[in-house]
Every structure is written in C-alpha cells, then in structure tokens.
Amino acid sequence: MKTIKIILPLLALVTVGFLYWPDRPSYIPQKLWGVWQTDHERYAGRYLDISEAIFTIGQGQQQLQVFFIHRVKMDIVGHREHYTLFYREHAKNQEPLQTFTFFFQKTQESDRIQMSNQGDILWYRTADHRRTAAAPGRETP
Fold it and tell me: What pLDDT is attached to residue 18?
C-alpha cells in the first residue's frame, strides 16, 4: 500500500513532465553542413556556412551575419529536397522567426544547393579550412 502511494504520484509527475516538456530542437541535417560558395560573379567573396544549429552568411572578409536555427522543415519537390530553415538573430530573440529556403540536390559530381529565389545560381560545398576538421564523413586526426 505504501508503494502505491509513492508510485502513483511519481507516475503522474512523469506523465505531466512528458506532456509539457519543450520540443526538442530540430537541427540542420548533417548532409547540409559545410561552407557553400557559388562561382556566380554577383556573389564573389560570399559564402554560406551551415552547421548543426547555426548558419552564417559571409559577405567578404569583413562582414558576417550569424543566425540561430529554431526549426527545420523538409519537403520533396521533384528530384530535390526543399528545406526551410526558421531562424532568428540571437540579439533579436523577441522578433518573429524568419525563413531561409533552398533546394538541396545530391549529384554524382557534387552536392549543390539553390536558393528558392535564385533559379539560375547554384552553390557548391567547398573544401574551406573553416570546415575541414568537422566536415561530414571526415574523421579528425
């Protein structure tokens, strides 16, 4: 009888905890991690740096925009994966989430991404030194 008095409230507490526990954050899939660049002249010197929960837009050597991912959504559109990253700047944590959408396609030559609003511009993963130690599929020495 004494055991039931202890177990019942404990089970109720665990159940309530599971019901109200915050959602586990969705992270960017590992196959998207890396530094991405394009050979399009309009974006010379710019790059996208994607990691587990952060993506950075590099605009040359001097300026960076760093965003924290709150949620990731993926849909299949034809033969490509369509991703939407829901993000916000850390300093603007009271503002609504913004979105960054792109297509991902794995080909025999390379992986590539294409922004939803840039139909003719492809971005390719580079072997940039910032990501070489943590690149997907690589082991660190």
Answer: 47
